[in-house]
């Protein structure tokens, strides 16, 4: 489809759900043989599977809260979003939430809370979480706001409800930017896509709080930019092994070790790869490749799925995959409402 088409919106939201559901199988595994990944994916094609047998996890549960909040409030409302996170957690606490964020979600349930950002600030001795929980649920922000500066501003605030460390929320900003650009068709020119991300993140990471967090955590200055430069080097190589990707970009639960990785998965899979079946299209390649990295597979596949889905559109998503994943059909429906909100805003309405 064209720029910011309905197909791309559906692709982004459904792609994220698929990544979460399909990736859940391998979360925490230490690198998964491609053979095992392909077996898992082909098992989805067998019609013995019932509807929605693969359950979504916290990644999708929280993204659904983001969607509902953005739609209901026709924009970002931190009180409303915080309430929805807390409510969702209390109704279904067993979705595999990070061990730290549970504290935040419990505190957010309290009615006496005067500052909804405070529980997140109290995490990890006052530094805040650098986990990828802000980034895993951020795609809807890119689908609600056509304006790049809004995407940056609100994705940051939305992440800060649980992740007050810049290494957490800036990962969310990076992921939101990637979905935003992909929606515009920017992945047609992968080199320029990456250059745009670098230019944006150079600015985003050029602030005192980010510099302070990087110093305190003994990271280099502008850590996300550094990973994007590494990614550029990896893309220039004719052959890259899974081990090298894990070593250079990571596959862990920190935003810094997973958001750049997810973006790399999408870029790497834009073209056919020897290790992947010929019959696979780009979205299927991206999914398979994300799972083969092991580590935080549901989240990496979820984030890669959002970016790839925004690029390829809903048409390329296998019907059998959609059927197996809880919440996929619903995501396709709500994507329409986000599409309407986005275009209403784009026309200044
Ligand atoms: O970031 P978060 O919401 O977790 C998301 C992950 C995804 O993979 C989901 O699929 C789900 O499985 O969990 O939750 P947090 O608890 O904020 O962060 C996740 C983990 O990162 C924490 O449990 C810690 O192990 C680690 N972590 C930190 N460790 C030390 N110091 C995050 N921040 C810190 C820190 O500052
Ligand atoms: Mg999860
Ligand atoms: Mg995860």
Features:
349 residues; mainly alpha; 20 helices; 0% strand; globular; binds inosine diphosphate ribose; binds magnesium ion
Written account of the structure:
- The model has no long low-confidence stretch (mean pLDDT 96).
- The longest helix is centred in the last third of the chain and has 19 residues.
- Helix 2 crosses helix 17, helix 16 crosses helix 17 and helix 16 crosses helix 18.
- The protein has 20 helices and no strands.
- The chain is globular and about 55 Å long.
- It is mainly α.
- The site of one magnesium ion has 6 residues, from helix 3 and helix 18.
- The site of inosine diphosphate ribose has 22 residues, from helix 3, helix 8 and helix 18.
Q: How would the blueprint of this fold be written?
A:
Blueprint (H helix, E strand, L loop, with lengths): L5 H18 L10 H10 L14 H16 L4 H14 L9 H8 L9 H4 L1 H4 L6 H4 L2 H6 L3 H13 L5 H18 L6 H15 L3 H9 L6 H14 L5 H8 L9 H10 L13 H11 L4 H16 L6 H6 L3 H19 L3
Helix pairs in contact: 1-17, 1-18, 1-20, 2-17, 3-4, 3-20, 4-5, 10-11, 11-12, 11-18, 12-14, 14-16, 16-17, 16-18, 17-18
The chain binds inosine diphosphate ribose (R7I) and magnesium ion (2 copies).
